[in-house]
Amino acid sequence: MKNTSLKTFAPVPKTRTSRLLNLGGLATKVASNVLAEGTKHWIKGDAPPISELVLNTKNLSEVADKLARMRGAAMKLGQLLSMDAGTLLPVELASVLAKLQSEGVMMPKTQLIDTLESEWGTDWSERFSYFSFEPIAAASIGQVHRARSNTGDELAVKIQFPGVAESIDSDIDNVLSLLKLSRLLPKTLNIDDLVVEARRQLKLEANYLAEAAHLSEFTNELAKHQVFADVVIPSQQPSLTTNKILTMSFVEGLSLESWLQKKPYEANRLITTQLELFFTELLNMNLMQTDPNPANYQVESGTGKLTLLDFGAVRRFEKGFVANYKSAIDQAIAQDRPALLGALEELGFFAKGSDVANKDVVLDIFMLAAEPLRANGSYNFGSSNLAKRIQMLGMSVSKNPDAWHTPPADVLFLHRKMAGLYLLAAKHNAQVDVAQLYYSFQ
Question: Is-catalytic flag, 291?
Answer without folding.
Answer: yes
